[in-house]
Amino acid sequence: MSTIKQSDFQSFAEFYPYYLQEHGNPTCRRLHFVGTFIVLSIIASVLAGASAWLLLALPVVGYGFAWVGHYVFEKNRPATFKYPFYSLAGDFVMFKDILTGRIDW
């Protein structure tokens, strides 16, 4: 199996179907959703006046939930390692797609 590089995708629109394929397990998707929700909640809290030190928790929360989903439930390697920027965008788009019902919770 050949390794695909981020440059192999010409756009995020090309990448996103691959991203969804890597997140087929419902528990993995749920963990991503929870992690993204907490990340957005932390950002909102800081913007509302909470300590900016809370921002240090963002990578732990964001990646922590996602990596448990991948290693324990999906049994694959997170897309972040191969496609960091597209993967980050994918997290937020998948979050929106779950909220809007486009993807099952």
Q: What best-fitting shape do the alpha-carbon axes yield?
A: globular
Distance between the termini: 31 Å
Helix content: 55-70%
Number of domains: 1
Strand proportion, as a percent range, falls in under 5%
Secondary-structure-based class equals mainly alpha
Sheet having the most strands: none
Number of helices: 4
- C-alpha-based Rg, rounded: 14 Å
Average pLDDT rating: 92
What is the H/E string?
HHHH
Number of strands: 0
Point out poorly predicted stretches: none
Helix/strand layout:
Layout: H1 12-21, H2 26-47, H3 58-74, H4 84-99
Helix pairs in contact: 1-4, 2-3, 2-4
Describe the model.
This protein has 105 residues and is mostly helical. The chain has one domain (25-99). The chain is 62% helix and 0% strand. The protein has 4 helices and no strands. The chain has helices spanning 12-21, 26-47, 58-74, 84-99. The protein is globular, with a radius of gyration of 14 Å. The protein starts with 11 loop residues before the first helix and ends in a 6-residue tail after the last helix.
